[in-house]
Design a protein that fits this description.
The chain is α/β, with parallel strands linked by helices. It is 47% helix and 13% strand. The strands form two sheets. It has a six-stranded mixed sheet with strand order 1-2-3-4-8-5, sandwiched between helices. A hairpin with a 4-residue loop joins strand 2 and strand 3.
Length: 303
């Protein structure tokens, strides 16, 4: 799947862009709430009513803290919690971050008081949409819970981590749209929304679900100024993530204590940053300026 699917042609911002994803699903409008409700209902497989939504921004004073961020924190009318995020370039330790987020939401519930106990803990969910695959199989959706793998016995069942690997959509894409479930239709909408060649498919999808139609309406309501602001946020986020990646590789090389490893780590980090920047739709010249790599190297990475 071409990285352009995640940003749209001609540098336009698709819904798989982190900033756009957050903006579409957290606006204080009925359309945005309808879209978020449909999205969560499809992937959590439950009817729900959204009470509160918080679009949290990551701290920027310490690069290491960028590993600890909530994108969209949701509280349902029954008190249950969910965190929803879009990650275009997940890293090798991403699964550990999912566990950390979920545990944090779970233990931060207030069960103090004479009339409260552990039985009052509400379920929590962590739902991540990923632009790069983490797991070796061909499944679009994975659901993780605590359980005994030998005897197939669940534990409390009140924490759940769900991942949607959008690049695996091609497996579902072999079906006719009418044969897809709502999860597959949502994934198709997010991946292809800004691609002109798929406009007929998108128009068909929009008629299939009120939530998807609402997401389309929210996006179309963005002004040019708002889209420019989202593009600026995306560039800033890429810059922070690129520096974090470089910092991590330098730390790894330093830990090994090899000067050559340090140099190789630096060079490899810049290539990783370049690939990520190209996937975000940044022009080759901009990637050269950010990473310091020459234009021929960047063009080879783009192929």
């Amino acid at each position: 799947m071409n990285p352009d699917y995640f940003t749209g042609f001609n540098g336009s911002l698709g819904i798989c862009n982190d900033a756009v994803f957050k903006a579409v699903f957290t606006k204080e409008t009925p359309e945005s709430r309808t879209a978020l409700k449909s999205l969560l209902s499809a992937f959590l497989e439950r009817e729900l009513f959204i009470l509160d939504v918080a679009a949290n921004e990551p701290p920027i004073n310490d690069l290491r803290d960028r590993q600890i961020r909530f994108d969209i924190l949701v509280r349902f009318n029954d008190g249950e919690l969910a965190n929803v995020e879009m990650t275009l370039n997940p890293k090798q330790y991403e699964s550990l971050r999912f566990e950390y987020y979920t545990a944090r939401m779970f233990i931060n519930q207030n069960i103090r008081g004479n009339n409260r106990s552990f039985r009052d803990l509400k379920p929590v969910y962590h739902l991540s949409f990923l632009g790069r695959n983490l797991y070796p199989d061909k499944e679009l959706l994975h659901r993780f819970i605590y359980y005994d793998p030998q005897r197939q016995i669940n534990m409390g069942g009140r924490t759940e981590i769900l991942t949607v690997e959008l690049k695996k959509l091609k497996q579902a894409g072999r079906k006719a749209i009418e044969q897809m479930d709502l999860r597959e239709v949502w994934a198709l909408f997010m991946v292809y929304y800004r691609e002109d060649k798929k406009s007929r498919i998108i128009q068909k999808i929009i008629t299939m679900d009120d939530g998807i139609a609402a997401a389309d309406q929210v996006y179309r309501g963005f002004t040019e100024t708002e889209l420019e602001g989202l593009a600026a946020i995306s560039r800033d986020k890429f810059d922070f993530d690129a520096r974090e990646e470089l910092w991590e590789m330098k730390e790894e090389a330093r830990a090994k204590g090899h000067a050559e490893g340090h140099a190789e780590g630096h060079a490899e980090a810049q290539k990783v940053n370049a690939r990520n920047a190209l996937a975000e739709g940044l022009p080759v010249e901009t990637v050269c300026r950010i990473t310091g790599l020459d234009i021929d190297t960047i063009k080879k990475l783009k192929k």
